[in-house]
């Protein structure tokens, strides 16, 4: 399944509805704060059971799968300073739009969220923002490295959308951009799937769709499970609402404890979702 970055508004709406139906969506839950979440001052080590360890270097993290096996696996969090075109280590976006934001402002005060929302997790003040326009849907992406080959992992992520207005206008005016229609998160390996050799040797791919309909100004917590081979890419596509001319924005938060090793993957789990 290949998304086109430039689609008409009507095609985008239809495509997104179809993708939501076809994706392996589980029940999406609004954020419930976790009181035991670590603060930003802690080392950004991933917890996968057993002991935790390793050191933080440029946004990457090391951890222990169990007390006897150490694996230096790395993934970039979305924790960084805010600003337009400013992305955490290891992150990027299509068209270099947008960057990193906080719960009050888009970027570094380039715009104000019309409705200020809560932190995605306690102590998490910044997150990645993508931008959609009437001409194309935006996307943000990163890569997971050094995962244990043949194991299955669970990634926890948070997504949201909110209307934006110029920061020099009072919020009481209620003038802002439309909310994004939704997002689709893709997890893909860089190795090909032999079962799909007749279809351009597509890589193993898993996806999860989230609709923002009636769910603006809140963080939606989701999980996705996938199998690891070589380095694994994560891409979050945004979807612009049908018929809207003004830009829309979507936010993504992946924290320090976002990935969990579930052990060896079963044979049936290697089928593409």
Task: Describe, in short, the structure shown.
This protein has 273 residues and is mainly beta. It is 5% helix and 36% strand. A hairpin with a 4-residue loop joins β7 (105-106) and β8 (111-113).
Commentary on this structure:
The protein is elongated. Mean pLDDT is 73; it is low at 1-14 and 21-73. It has a domain at 77-165 and 176-266: Jelly Rolls (Sandwich), CATH 2.60.120.260. The chain is mainly β and 273 residues long. It has one helix at residues 9-22, and strands at 29-30, 63-66, 69-71, 83-84, 92-93, 98-102, 105-106, 111-113, 126-132, 139-144, 151-161, 164-165, 182-192, 203-211, 220-227, 232-239, 248-253, 259-264. The chain is built from one helix and 18 strands. The longest helix has 14 residues, at 9-22. The strands form four sheets. Strands 1, 4, 6, 9, 11, 15, 17 and 18 form an eight-stranded antiparallel β-sheet that branches. The protein has a five-stranded antiparallel β-sheet with strand order 5-10-16-13-14, covered by helices on one side. A three-stranded antiparallel β-sheet has the order 7-8-12, with no helix packed on it. Helix content is 5%, strand content 36%.
Pick out its properties.
273 residues, Jelly Rolls, eight-stranded antiparallel β-sheet, five-stranded antiparallel β-sheet, 1 helix, 36% strand
Secondary structure elements and their pairing?
Blueprint: H1 9-22, E1 29-30, E2 63-66, E3 69-71, E4 83-84, E5 92-93, E6 98-102, E7 105-106, E8 111-113, E9 126-132, E10 139-144, E11 151-161, E12 164-165, E13 182-192, E14 203-211, E15 220-227, E16 232-239, E17 248-253, E18 259-264
Antiparallel strand pairs: 1-15, 2-3, 4-6, 5-10, 6-9, 7-8, 8-12, 9-17, 10-16, 11-15, 11-17, 11-18, 13-14, 13-16
Keywords: Signal
Biased composition (Gly residues): 50-61
Signal peptide: 1-26
